[in-house]
Amino acid sequence: MADKLDPVEFQEWIDASSLMEIHARKILEMNESFKENADVIISQLTTGYPVHSYTITIEEAEEIFGEYIHHGKEEKYKNLWDASKSWIKKYLDEESSNHIIRFILPRRRG
Q: Which of 88, 104, 52, 53 is nearest to 80 (CA)?
């Protein structure tokens, strides 16, 4: 099996994985609620799913983050949503073989 591994591709995978962890940590550390569990959250998001394009359900998000983060007008979520929106805007209309962003916005109530 080792003879089938391309060392250059393997190093690129390691580098991409490290970069994912760095970005995730930056985003999580913007919110005091997630700093304490950052390692667990990062581990689940970077290695806890079978493929990168796996869509996380609301129930799984609740398990990962301990509470459901919704698109409400509550002040405690404002900084987190602002950071998430800024990050998503960087990639929204960009085509790339390196990333796929999938997200589901909850239905607006009322």
A: 88
Q: Could you report the per-residue pLDDT of 71-104, keeping only the tens digit for each?
A: 556 676 677 777 777 777 776 666 666 655 555 5
Q: Which amino acid is at 14?
A: I
Domain annotation covers residue 31: yes
The total number of structural domains in the chain stands at 1
Q: How many CB atoms lie within 10 A of CB 104?
A: 10
Does residue 80 contact residue 70 with C-beta atoms inside 8 Å?
Answer: no
80: containing domain:
2-91
Q: Please count the CA atoms within 13 angstroms of the CA of 5 that sit on its side-chain side.
A: 7
Q: Check pLDDT > 70 for residue 106.
A: no
Tell me, yes or no, whether 108 lies in a domain. no
4 DSSP 8-state letter = G
Q: How confident is the model at residue 27 (pLDDT cuts 50, 70, 90)?
A: confident
pTM: 0.52
Amino acid 56 reads I
Rounded CA-CA distance 19/7 in Å is 18
